Amino acid sequence: MQWGPFPDSAAWSRALSVILVRSIRNGYLPTFAVQLVVMAAGLITLRLAALAFGTDGFGTYTVSRRCLSIIGFPALLGLGVSLPRYMGSSSSLSDKDNFFLASIFLSIPSLSILPSVLLVAPTWAATFLFGDKSFSYMTAPLAAGVIGLNLYTVVYSYFRGQLRMWSANFLQCLAMGIVPPFSVVLSDGNVGLAITLLGVSWALLSLTILFLLLKRIWPDRAITRVLWRNVKILAGYGIPRIPAEFALFGLFAVPPLLIVRTAGIERAGFVSLGLTLVQAGGSMFATAGIILLPYLSGLFIKGKMKEVRRLVGWTLGLSCGLVCLGVISFEIMAPQLVPAIMGKDFSAAVSSLNVLVLSSVPYVFYLMLRTPLDAVSKVPYNSLSLSAAFATVAVLIWLGNVICAELAILIGMTLLGSLSIASWHLALHRAATGKAMTPGVTGTWNQ
Asked: Which residue in 12, 165, 196, 405 has its CB near the most CB atoms, within 10 A?
């Protein structure tokens, strides 16, 4: 695959200065800083959970957090994707507010039906999620967690849709950076209480902001045909995108849930820890994609595909070098680093972590190419790649006795990275032959 020559120093300096200025003005660099805070807080939370709950309790805690992710997003019917999209494309504050109100109505099922199922059928829910009915005591905490997480998602998506990135970053810092470690500290060694405190804190924080927002919006709004039309628009856009997002969540959330059934809660906790490390490292590169998006979109609108190819090649090469350096460093230091941070009981996790962290390399390839792919093509390359990777991981782990779970995840992530590279090559070819997506009259992409 040919990436083209590197940009000359003057051209790269101009491009970098434009990106930095826009990033500071729009809040993208603070977004990068907040991701660092959230990543550090996540590692601190894991350390506190290891100390507070022991290896079995740690497994229960991490698997429960994965459960929140995998059942929470589908229940929101894609609002985390659709609300920012339609608020961002609306030209007036009135239209933005109407979409926000529509999102609240659309979120009612996730705030009522799913928690009710968890509370009314705890034995069935525990068997479905953990593979063991003895975990039924975790269903009530999970219900609180689902409500809190979904309320947070609606508020965070509102700020993103308004392009109020400073407010979004502040909310994320509180909800994902401060609340999780404090919920573990205040739990007194009780895993269920830690998840409950997490959900209740998210809910109280989000409801406070929702009250302030609705106090401004509601006096000037009524339940009209426009509102219900917007509910249909959000559902029509978000629901078809659930499978792809579910596949992304599934890559990180489903393996521990399957491993609970095949290898026990302790092993599932170790795998969940490794996947958390992969996610934490990848979040830095995902934020870089957000920063590059406006610049890449501008180049594509102007037909400067050569510069798009060069910039993507440069950033992909730099990201590959950085992630490889990080992986090599971890592989060397893991036998001393993991017990020192997580405790001596986690020495047994080193072999699992060594394999799983290798997944960071192909995962970063996917993260750095997904934004360019969305910018130059309307073909859902990312959805196809994610679905294939998720299906591969799920099948290999479910077989169990054929291949170990860690190797199955590595194979799936490698497939994801390989398909992303192949898709980028194909998308460039289609763009060169005039088969790529074209910009709409309002400056947005025609869907």
From this structure: 405
